[in-house]
Amino acid sequence: MDYLSKFEELKSKELSLDLTRGKPSSDQLDLSNGLMSFSENDFLYDGVDIRNYGEIKGLDSCRELGAEILGCSKEYVWAGGNSSLSLMSQFMSFLFVEGIGEGPWNSKKRVSVLCPVPGYDRHFNLCEKFGINMIPVSLTGTGPDLEEVKRLIDSDESIRGMWCVPKYSNPTGEIYSHQTIDGLLEIFSKTKNKTLIFWDNAYAVHDLYDDSSFDDIFAMAKTKGCEDVVVQFGSSSKITFAGSGIAFIAMSLNNQNKFLPFYSSLMIGPDKLNQARHVRFFNQVDLKDHMKRHAAIIKPKFDLVINKLESQKFGKWTRPKGGYFLLFEADKGLAKKIINLASELGLKLTPAGATHPYGLDEEDKFIRIAPTACSLDELDTAMDVFLCCIGLAYEQAQ
Ligand SMILES: Cc1ncc(COP(=O)(O)O)c(C=O)c1O
Question: Which residue ranges does the chain devote to CATH 3.90.1150.10?
Fold first, then answer.
């Protein structure tokens, strides 16, 4: 059947499908229902009454859990509320008001941040809200292009930071190689703490395969004497409950001492009942086994998307070994067209351009696919719709 006839046939089905959301499916959330079984009647935890204010850095044992997730040592890690994005915004606020290194960002005429692309739209939104100038940097498949990063940092005084999603990057799914991390640290170590690496390790343990060891950036930074340039983030959002997990921020003791007074003025302490619940849960359930159970649900969805894409001849796509996203790269000028056609058939896709700062994918090529939230059956239909729209867009472009 030709693409147009298939398109008309699918249209008559009045479908309602959604591949926009990087959310766990409800069967993934069910894996952590054990969290609800703790009757919190033992309120003394780590010697602390967890009902009360205090423990601004989080419960000790929860910081340990954070260290296990982020793959670094516990002294660096604080356990906060339910969202790492909130911690990122709190840390940004701190940089504007007080700052590390060269004084507060609000005393500068212009503050710029390097944004590897394709990247995560919420990082870009956050920068936009803060009035930060965003400079795109290309990703290579093993992390950012180091020559580009070096050239920009050497030539632009206003650059104060860089976003990195180092493992299963959103949305390319790529993993930063050891050489790339080493090279980044080498470049940033020369900036005298003026320029920071925002290491958003959101997918640190979200592996689909076993061979998944990853570098501890603090250990690497320590050997270069530049621990202070790294601020790491992560959370249990896609490990336990996306809306009721624990978020983590990790940094050098120097930076902790600077950030602590500011952070303490924002709140009196995190939700320690939830932190204790998480620690108790992971005392009973091995984190690695838990993530394998997630993988058992997610991997068939990634496989389905890749198999479907491989059954046709247009565009390119990534084959991530973990995380939550795949990326489809169409020929120049076709992403919006494909997304609009899909919308006509009732399939929602992440808006074109969302993968780039200011929503500007100059070449109009990239489409992020988030396969986890829907069921396998829905995903199967959604991919048929997607392939039909790809085919039709390419045909009409000829
Ligand atoms: C790279 C990245 N960072 C952060 C988040 C959000 O994390 P949290 O739920 O901890 O705010 C996401 C969610 O999709 C993400 O992809």
Answer: 3-22+288-397
Rounded Cα distance between 128 and 14, Å, is: 37
Cα–Cα distance between 22 and 85 in angstroms, integer? 14
Greater confidence, 272 or 37? Answer: 272
> Can you read off the two tokens belonging to residue 345?
């058939």
Report the C-alpha gap between 204 and 97 in whole angstroms: 30
How far apart CA 113 and CA 136 sit, in angstroms, is 9
Q: What is the mean pLDDT of the chain?
A: 96
| 3-class state of residue 267 by DSSP | coil
Beta bridge partners of 161: 113, 196
C-alpha of residue 145 to centroid of ligand 1, in Å: 23
Instruction: Look at the pTM and tell me if it is higher than 0.85.
Output: yes
| List of E strands, 61-177 | 77-79, 112-117, 133-138, 159-164
Fold of 41-284: Aspartate Aminotransferase; domain 2 (3.40.640)
What are the pocket residues of ligand 1 if the criterion is a CB atom closer than 6 Å to any ligand atom?
22, 83-85, 120, 165, 170, 200, 202, 235, 237, 247
Q: What is the pLDDT of residues 109-134, one digit of tens each?
A: 999 999 999 999 999 999 999 999 99
- CA-based nearest residue to 346, from 381, 320, 376, 321: 381
CA gap 226, 366 in Å, rounded: 35
From the CB of residue 156, how many other CB atoms can be counted at a distance below 10 Å? 13
CB 304 within 8 A of CB 95: no
Kindly report, as residue ranges, where domains of CATH 3.40.640.10 are found in the chain.
Answer: 41-284
**Measuring CA to CA, how many Å separate 20 from each of 93, 106, 262, 276, 325?**
29, 35, 35, 33, 10
Most informative mutation of 91, 120, 206 for ligand 1 (most atoms within 8 A of CB): 120
Sheet with 316-317, strands from edge to edge, namely 316-317, 326-329, 366-369
Q: Report yes or no: 199 and 88 within 8 Å, Cβ to Cβ.
A: no
Assigned CATH class of 3-22+288-397: alpha beta
